[in-house]
From TrEMBL:
It is a multi-pass membrane protein. One of its GO terms (cellular component) is plasma membrane. One of its GO terms (biological process) is amino acid transport. This is Branched-chain amino acid transport system permease protein.
Length: 293
């Protein structure tokens, strides 16, 4: 039982890393209707901003806050100067643009900060606590709690605030939103800005666990996209819960299913996606969309 609990706790910790990135992907999709494949690269760039602030002698929390602010304006600028040119066209073209942006951002990070592993301090202590016989690091626990708080805030933003409802309206139908008097262009910039700021928080939470490199979130991005599909593109709660399910299922399958082991556990989330898409195409927490013909 102790081994089982330890695997579940470790899976929740790993799933929180995926959830941090998945929340930013959901935010962009809710605000613009696009899936941003460059989200991982932008989160890494934001973590490098915070790292530069540390090198200049700023306290950790101050460096992270400044990185969040800079990332907000950077995300808004990316939407205004690049993404907006493709938002009204073929969605596949916009997706290819975000993939190209990911490559560009990764290259810029490597050029400015090199490809060496850099140590990024954690905002949480490095001590451990005992939970039902499982050893849990305070850093992992703090990351999980932070992800839960962000999830709740995003859910409240989209369901309980005028700004969140306006962002959803623009993503669903920008033409109708424009006729209703909503500033569509400004709202799209705000949506990308919020997503970039959230990516900065995610990058700062994840970097201490993975070490800071330009490709730090490449693998996590795959799992984050799986979590978004599994949980539902329009549900922050779904993205987080799905990320936890993936993290726990991977760990349990690697230990308790002999033919999977640690080598094939990467197939677990994709098997889950296949099953969920057959049974519930909109995801675990997603909304079913009905189109009138």
């Amino acid at each position: 039982m102790g081994t089982f609990i330890q695997l579940v706790v470790d899976g929740l910790s790993t799933g929180s890393v995926y959830a941090a990135l998945a929340l930013a992907i959901v935010l962009v999709n809710q605000a613009t209707g696009l899936i941003n494949f460059a989200q991982g690269g932008m989160a890494v760039l934001s973590a490098y901003f915070a790292y530069t602030g540390l090198q200049l002698g700023l306290p950790l929390l101050v460096a992270i806050v400044l990185a969040v602010v800079v990332s907000f304006f950077l995300g808004a600028a990316v939407e205004r100067l690049l993404i907006r040119r493709f938002e009204r066209g073929d969605p596949d073209t916009a997706i290819v643009v975000t993939i190209g942006l990911l490559t560009l951002v990764t290259g810029i990070c490597g050029w400015l900060w090199t490809y060496n592993n850099l140590q990024f301090p954690s905002p949480f202590p490095l001590s451990t606590v005992d939970i039902f016989g499982a050893v849990v690091s305070v850093r992992s626990l703090g990351t999980t709690i932070a992800i839960i708080a962000i999830m709740v805030l995003l859910q409240l933003l989209f369901l309980r605030t005028k700004l969140g409802l306006a962002l959803r309206a623009v993503a669903d139908n920008p033409v109708s939103a424009s006729f209703s008097g909503l500033p569509v262009g400004r709202l799209l910039m705000i949506g990308w800005g919020f997503a970039a700021a959230l990516g900065a928080i995610a990058g700062s939470l994840v970097a201490p666990q993975l070490t800071l490199t330009p490709g730090m979130l490449d693998n996590a991005l795959v799992y984050a996209l799986a979590a978004v599909i599994l949980g539902g593109l329009d549900s922050p709660i779904g993205a987080v819960v799905a990320a936890w399910i993936i993290g726990v299922a991977e760990n349990l399958a690697a230990v308790y299913i002999p033919f999977i082991g640690h080598d094939l556990k990467i197939a677990v989330p994709f098997l889950l996606i296949f099953v969920i898409l057959v049974v519930r195409p909109q995801g675990l927490f997603g909304r079913k969309v009905v189109a009138r013909v």
